[in-house]
Amino acid sequence: MSIQSSVTHRRGGALAGCLIAAGVVAVLVIIGVVLLVMNLKTLAVDGAAGFTKAAVSAMPLPEQEKPEINAIIDRLATSVKDGDITIEEATRLLQGLENSPFLAMGGVSVFEATYLSDSGLSDEEKAEASLTLNRVAQGVVAKTITTSDIDGLLGPVRRTTPDGSTEFKPPSEVSDDDLRQVVADAKALADDRDVSMERVEVDLSDSLEQAIEEMLGRELPG
Questions:
Q1: How far apart are CA 162 and CA 171, in angstroms?
Q2: Closest CA to 12 of 216, 201, 144
Q3: Which residues fall within 8 angstroms of residue 174, CB to CB, at 6 or more apart?
């Protein structure tokens, strides 16, 4: 399988619409829209938008992308206030998110910012890990790698809580060998699913905007 190695602009096709560097942002944005629509009588639209933007600002994202993402949130909030996004459309956005690779993409991409950046891995190991995670993300987009596959990779950075649920370990509790194990398993998975060895670069804010517009079926105003 071969996936084009360069995706640059918001009209660049399905891959650009799905391959978002941190799918958690999409979760925040869509949940924010649903809250805005469902709670107009009790929740100030501007306040909800501000909360969502604060969450985005706290995330491990490229700094240059944050104002562009926040501009998208403002446009969504304006659309809600103007009645351009209905409850049905907000529900469709949420359902589209649940059926998209966004959640798995978030787990793959935020991993790098959370665990790899400040680890004791060498620069060469970090570069290899970054490419490997990018390949896994490509596999998620192409549907050759499933969310169950992703869950299987993340075992070394998860722990079981007293109530029997699982949670991610803080970086201080994840060893370099844990990270090497995740990367090795991720590489084996990507190789097994015949994912391209070439990195796919995606503009986060452009991709997010395209994904939202595809789920709405029209362009966002503004």
A1: 20
A2: 201
A3: 115, 119, 156, 157
Q: Which of 99-108, 142-151, 199-208 has the lowest mean pLDDT?
A: 99-108
CA–CA separation, 165 and 203 (whole Å): 35
Element (H, E) at 185: helix 176-192
Cβ–Cβ under 8 Å, residues 202 and 21:
yes
Q: What is the pLDDT, as a whole number, of residue 113?
A: 79
CA gap 206, 190 in Å, rounded: 26
| Of the candidates 60, 145, 168, 182, the residue with the CA atom closest to the CA atom of residue 110 | 60
In this predicted structure, the answer to whether residue 97 has a pLDDT above a threshold of 90 is: no
Q: Tens digits of per-residue pLDDT, 38-59? A: 565 445 566 667 777 777 776 6
How far apart CA 172 and CA 141 sit, in angstroms, is 31
Which residue, 138, 218, 122, 136, is CA-closest to 184? 136
Candidates 14, 22, 26; CA nearest to 143 is 14
Q: Do you know the residue count of the chain? A: 222
